Amino acid sequence: MIESHRYRADIDGLRALAIAPVVLFHANIPGFGGGFIGVDVFFVISGYLITSIIAREIREGRFTLQGFYERRIRRILPALFAMLSVSVLAAYLILYPAQAQSFSRSLIAATLFVSSILFQREVGYFDQEAELKPLLHTWSLSVEEIFYILYPLLLWFTWRRFRGHQTALVAGIAALSFAATVIALWIDKQSTSAFFLPHFRAWELLIGALVALVPLRLPKGRTFAGLLAIIGLSMIVVPVYAYSQTTTFPGLAALAPCLGTALVIVAGQRRPSPVGRMLSWRPIVFLGLISYSLYLWHWPIFVFARHVLGREPLLGESLALIAASLIAAVLSWRFVERPFRGRSGLLPRPALFAAAALAALILTGIGLHGQQTGGWLGRYPPELVDIFAASQDHDPRRRACESVRADTPGCIYGEADAPPVVALLGDSHAAVYAMVLGELAQGRGEAVLSLTMPICPPALGWAGEPLSWREDCGLFQRLALERIIATPSIHTVVLAAWYRIYPFDDPHGKLAVAIEEAIERLVSAGKRVALVYPIPQPDADIPTTLAEAVLEGRDPNLVRQPLEQFHADQGGVFAMLDGLDRHPSLVRLYPHRVLCPDSECLFYRDGSTLYYDDNHLSVTGAALLRPLFAPLFDGAAQQDEGR
């Protein structure tokens, strides 16, 4: 049943019902833990409206791709490009270089509508927290626009060639997409692919499409339609309060809000239901009218506020940010969106296409410039440039060599063609030693095998942290040990980890037992084991902290941590590692003896920054530990004597 083209105020009301929980969820307002389902409501509405228009035009012989994409440009690009332009200025003024470089990357992706693909790859271990990405919300626009590249052609082709089976084909594609999402989340409950990628979200848009295509005849009278609308509204509202960030999503959990949206739309096709009349209340309709602009503006406003405050906004601050978002949305809707809407909107089609291409080219160019200049480093004096550059002072092979695959081949450091004599095993805190070990090996014509996985300590059989690669971690530990043991050239194995983030104080000692089991396997195979103790961890991003000190006129050399505090923070970890005393031949290495001279732990030394973030040594910082690791390449290493 393809409706005649008439305005339905209740659908704008549905948009309001979608955007309100999204904004309140992002503002951390209590009671809206599942507000993210508003995006799914938008997907269904979009699929319904777009399919209604395309199908009607195809049926009437008026459909053209140029006309379709002109409507999309007029609807999407003016407000989007305005938001991106203002965000560029805010990023330049507020963000530090590493953050600005990440922003520049997302600016390019958002402009080209591939941000869903970028964020699927980025949102994880190596990138800054999602809540600090000003353009993260553009992933949903990316999903829609990638979907609409092929979808109009699908409708046109199936109408021409398979008219009698068009609905079945669309339903089949929706079913395949939904099944793929469920399977992806069954395999990995935290699958970023299932969340961000268009083919896993297509079924939500196609639910709306099916509402437009399937001839549904409701019983006469208002009772049935009213009941249908109430059920649909409940299926949207209940998840807003019942879901949370721990809900496995989208998948099965997204069915309720998506089907609920479809029911509300169906219930109002003949005449407004009581729910439809409520949604048609003018203040609600107005919120729906500005919903697109509100979606665009609220997230960067919230994110830039977090950067300025250096923390999550308080409740009063969040309410003020919501008010600011509403003001920005109204202005954007009135002075940016509306002038471009409709056939009589600003600019004829050729000029509109040219202007859109030019604007996209400019924004992409700005993003490329931000990338190539390290996040506009030229904004700062030389001393600050050097400090900020430390955020990139890490192993250039980090992403390749710190794998979340259980069967990772690892990486060779040092002499590429030489058999490895030392192996490095652990998590990202082990990985920071790969380059310095490799340099030591290179000087002797030898090699080091690095086998590391993020948040996966060298603990055989340990269950691991509740991450998407948890099962891979357990298998990785076993396969890595087997490979090391099976390599006769390896005489020494270096074990290191960020022990502080694991349950080192578990009264049952499961982690300690698992580490000791790994040591036992290695020692029994004739390997010498070197256990690396913790490094000072300031719990604040060091390049940023040092830069702020310089900007405030303070000496960055004085940004330090008392040795007593280090021992207090790491006392439990030291106790656990000290308890691994079954093997007297175990070599114990204490980096803090180098990093904490004169009873103070340094983060800045001789003009160099020793950490690239809040807990990982930079390449420069790790290089200071060469004397600590050098004896490992000899036939015997001296046993350290404790703290």
- Largest sheet properties: 6 strands, mixed
Helical content stands at: 55-70%
Q: Low-confidence spans: pLDDT under 50, at least 5 residues?
A: none
Q: Beta-sheet strand percentage?
A: 5-15%
Strand order of the largest sheet: 1-3-2-4-5-7
Q: Number of helical runs?
A: 27
Can you give the mean pLDDT?
A: 90
The quaternary state of the protein chains shown equals: single chain
Protein structure class: alpha/beta
CA-based shape: elongated
Radius of gyration: 29 Å
Number of strands: 10
Distance between the termini: 77 Å
Description:
The chain is α/β, with parallel strands linked by helices and 643 residues long. It is 58% helix and 6% strand. The protein has 27 helices and 10 strands. It has helices spanning 9-26, 38-59, 65-94, 97-111, 115-122, 139-161, 166-187, 192-196, 198-213, 223-242, 255-267, 274-279, 282-289, 291-309, 315-340, 349-372, 382-389, 398-401, 428-431, 434-442, 470-485, 510-524, 542-551, 563-578, 592-595, 619-623, 626-629, and strands at residues 411-414, 420-426, 447-452, 492-496, 528-532, 560-562, 587-589, 600-602, 604-605, 608-609. The strands form 3 sheets. Strands 1-3-2-4-5-7 form a 6-stranded mixed sheet. Strands 6-8 form a two-stranded antiparallel sheet. It is elongated. The protein starts with 8 loop residues before the first helix and ends in a 14-residue tail after the last helix.
